[in-house]
Design goal:
By secondary structure, this protein is of the alpha/beta class. The chain folds into three domains: 144 residues, no CATH class; 224 residues, Single-stranded right-handed beta-helix, Pectin lyase-like (Pectate Lyase C-like, 3 Solenoid), CATH 2.160.20.10; 93 residues, no CATH class. Helix content is 15%, strand content 28%. The chain contains nine helices and 32 strands. It is globular and about 60 Å long. The N terminus is likely disordered.
Length: 560
């Protein structure tokens, strides 16, 4: 698949006379749109040949080729949806494109500022007794756009800290050496009184918030352009009413539901459940423009959704409130108190990455005795090398140490190399999430919680789930739709105990290489690889599928 890199000018191009540059650029953009037209024609031709497609599917499923040759052993361990290196995949496949999840789409290393300040310069002591909150606040104010260094020590903090400035990194000396001790619960600082969907009194700290907050809300929309032409999921261009965008700019497509809730119904492939609590729904996808021809823009990746006039589609510049903010190489520690149980959390949460933040990260983090781990609501953010721990005395009567372990509730988010050494009510959560990925992790007894709110096209891959007694246990308010929309994908999940196919009220789920006890009948009657609808199950033994990590494989394919 072509990326923005393919459309970047070469050094030779930059040395050409201006007239030749313009002509060359016009030819390049024309090539982009010609390629898009070929793609659409090829797709339509493929859709018109179901008999041929059926023969291909049977061959990919392991049926003997016409010439009688036997399939190789390696072929038996590749997926019908992907193959060895993505040769069976296409943008309109039921298998979504997860290759751009995470910081800067996985295309560059973290941007770490060279200039730095130290919290010690502002009076922080780090002796485990002195309240260092004021010193940290001064360091945060002076350290915007810099590295804020936290030397080895145990720093007591008693208030919420906010990182609003872009290009700011809070860096410790390592999780075992720099420890932030938040001794006062969030509910005592900002009560945030609320109720659950069922009417139970609680606070918003039960499902959001952090003692360090990155970024803020998304700025109000401005400069919106109407989309005037319909488009199908998998296409890579949009026709606009007018166009002021240029190649290289990041733009955000927004779709808005109508009075019939047809957008929500589309996200659920018409298997919605109770959606009385999903009102005025809106979904977005961010792109980089790789070409412009009049009022039509070429995009750097496939559309996740159909684009229909009924959903009032618009495109605007993507303007996050904060970018390139990182927290790394330190521990969060909370007072050792017994966890009181569901919706009785007091706000011992480490970090919230707010909705308006993008291209931010958490890495090399240990969280101990928390009500919940990080809540990530932004876009293109990465959480990696994170470890969640709890003392035995922290556990509730049910054996839980907290509510949500790691929550990805935004767009194109990535969590990888995670270790969960305790049991949360929900270990990994997606809620209203789109295009997020959990990759390469392990847990004691993993719960992959799909928390309703029309989550769509999310990936769990290359994970050691431990005992496997509650793999698909999911929750959320009963009027917020079924547990997941279409495109939930599980690839190479290892567990001690097999599971039943998720009973979430929706069929549009894809499972490859995960032991399913009731799977033989499902695997024997699969839909088309190009259909989002229906159950998809390939009974490949975990650990034997190639590739092991679908996110890594998709990223590698895109980089070629």
């Amino acid at each position: 698949m072509r990326t923005a890199r393919d459309f970047m000018p070469s050094p030779l191009f930059l040395r050409l006379p201006m007239g030749l540059c313009v002509r060359a650029a016009a030819l390049a953009v024309a090539a982009v749109f010609a390629a898009a037209a070929v793609f659409v024609a090829a797709r339509d031709a493929t859709a018109a040949a179901p008999a041929a497609e059926s023969r291909v599917e049977k061959a990919l499923a392991g049926a003997a080729p016409a010439d009688g040759a036997k399939a190789s052993l390696n072929q038996l361990h590749t997926s019908m949806l992907w193959g060895r290196q993505g040769e069976r995949w296409s943008p309109e496949s039921r298998l979504p494109d997860f290759s751009m999840a995470g910081y800067r789409r996985g295309e560059e290393p973290y941007r770490v500022p060279k200039e730095s300040v130290s919290v010690k310069d502002f009076g922080a002591v780090g002796d485990g007794r002195t309240d260092d909150t004021a010193a940290f606040r001064r360091a945060f104010e002076a350290g915007g756009g810099k590295r804020i260094v936290v030397p080895p020590g145990r720093y007591v903090l008693t208030d919420i800290l906010r990182m609003r400035a872009s290009n700011t990194v809070l860096r410790g000396a390592g999780p075992g050496r720099t420890v932030l001790i938040f001794s006062k619960p969030g509910i005592e600082i900002e009560p945030r009184i609320s109720k659950t969907d069922g009417g139970q009194p609680t606070s918003n700290w039960s499902w959001a918030g952090g003692m360090i907050v990155v970024g803020g809300p998304m700025p109000r929309s401005e400069g919106e352009m109407k989309v005037v032409g319909a488009a199908k999921r998998g296409q890579m261009q949009l026709a606009l009413e007018a166009n002021s965008f240029r190649p290289g700019e990041e733009v955000m497509l927004a779709l808005h539901d109508d009075g019939e809730k047809s957008l929500v119904k589309y996200l659920y492939c018409d298997q919605t459940g109770d959606i009385s609590g999903l009102n005025r729904w809106r979904v977005v996808q961010v792109f980089r423009i790789v070409g412009v021809k009049g009022n039509t823009i070429a995009l750097d990746r496939p559309l996740r959704f159909d684009v229909r006039a009924a959903w009032k589609p618009t495109v605007e510049r993507f303007r996050p409130s904060a970018t390139d903010v990182g927290i790394e190489s330190l521990s969060f520690e909370f007072p050792l108190r017994r966890y009181e149980g569901h919706f009785k959390e007091v706000g011992f949460n480490p970090v919230e990455i707010a909705r308006g933040a993008a291209h931010c990260w958490l890495r090399d983090i240990v969280v101990r005795n928390a009500d919940s781990g990080p809540y990530v609501f932004g876009s293109f953010c990465t959480v990696e090398n994170i470890r969640l721990q709890a003392d035995e005395a922290r556990l509730s009567k049910q054996g839980h140490s907290g509510h949500h372990g790691i929550s990805l509730q935004g767009n194109d988010l990535l969590c990888r190399d995670f270790t969960i050494e305790t049991r949360f009510i929900h270990d990994l959560t997606v809620q209203s999430s789109i295009g997020c990925a959990f990759a390469r992790g392990k847990a004691v007894d993993l719960c992959m919680d799909h928390h309703r709110w029309a989550s769509y096209e999310n990936l769990f891959t290359d994970i050691d789930a431990g005992k496997g007694t509650r793999l698909f246990a999911s929750s959320g308010g009963g009027n917020r739709g079924n547990h997941s929309g279409a495109g939930a994908t599980f690839w190479n999940i290892r567990a001690e105990k097999p599971s039943r196919f998720p009973n979430w009220g929706i069929d549009a789920i894809t499972i490859v290489a995960l032991p399913i006890t009731d799977g033989e009948s499902i695997a024997a009657s699969l839909p088309s690889p190009r259909s989002q609808k229906g159950r998809w199950l390939e009974l490949i033994p975990p650990g034997e599928v190639q590739p092991q990590n679908l996110y890594d494989a998709m990223k590698a394919r895109r980089a070629k």
